[in-house]
Amino acid sequence: xxxxxxxxxxxxxxxxxxxxxxxxxxxxxxxxxxxxxxxxxxxxxxxxxxxxxxxxxxxxxxxxxxxxxxxxxxxxxxxxxxxxxxxxxxxxxxxxxxxxxxxxxxxxxxxxxxxxxxxxxxxxxxxxxxxxxxxxxxxxxxxxxxxxxxxxxxxxxxxxxxxxxxxxxxxxxxxxxxxxxxxxxxxxxxxxxxxxxxxxxxxxxxxxxxxxxxxxxxxxxxxxxxxxxxxxxxxxxxxxxxxxxxxxxxxxxxxxxxxxxxxxxxxxxxxxxxxxxxxxxxxxxxxxxxxxxxxxxxxxxxxxxxxxxxxxxxxxxxxxxxxxxxxxxxxxxxxxxxxxxxxxxxxxxxxxxxxxxxxxxxxxxxxxxxxxxxxxxxxxxxxxxxxxxxxxxxxxxxxxxxxxxxxxxxxxxxxxxxxxxx
Length: 422
Hints:
The chain is mainly alpha-helical.
């Protein structure tokens, strides 16, 4: 594996170090950068230089020009020209070539000013991460005939973090709730959570967005429904007196949804015109074209892969977040494994050696039963619910993303209960 690839993987792993410590950001617009040591900063600077050279060899391919704009590499700050005339002119240019309505409006402008002044560092981090994900998003959006700007929705949803999760239980780059993900064909069981797979989750998001757009015939209503659900959007439309313009319906949406579309417009504008406002990629991740996908038969553990290749187990986990227990289940099934292009030959040559490494540690694969939904009743506690369904309290918490044992009447719980034990 070459120096750029090793630096890329080290940087990629470092950028998700908070995940290994259980520190998961749930608000993509409130990221907090952890302080870097002098050594880390030196590595970042070295990597940015290596990455620029690497891109010139056509490993990094994307229609997003932000992937090439690194501060200090021949670019100059134009300044924070966030007045309405400056922004409106550039939004009008975006609107002419987009399938979305990106015309200037005062609500979105306020969010542009906020993000351009208070979130510029965070947006720079997203620009750095975009090399890993935007080429993949663009390919799927193009194939599905959807507006390319929808790639920025993943920035709003997850901060381009496949491990992101919300307090409500949404997971992955596109923040799917459990049943929405299942309805869109994503696999979620004790071993696999395809909400965390960049490609499969993106394809599911496109299917879901297409369905919502067909329902309303308007992208902003579709985006509002993506965030709050069609029921809340329909209710807002009724309360508005049947208005058909999103901005007239917006005041009737749930409070937490009203800024969702303005946030999306702000992110779209600032990601497209980042250099003009002094925003540049920070700590760029390796480009999507530097990774390949291998179809591998399970069972195979991540530590087995790492034992005889140049990757560490943690690096394998970062590249393959969909496997919840760091193991490909099986046997009899083949699963995708993301791997650096330059290491593919090594992987193929060492696959048999992987399987011979401590095979006795591979657990028996036992899938959980299909889930049932239990509505909490008066007098219920987690202990009594667990006993009734033949499961453990710890399992109930894990399935429902509960941090405490507090539950409320009417709350819905997902339970993977064995019918024979109920």
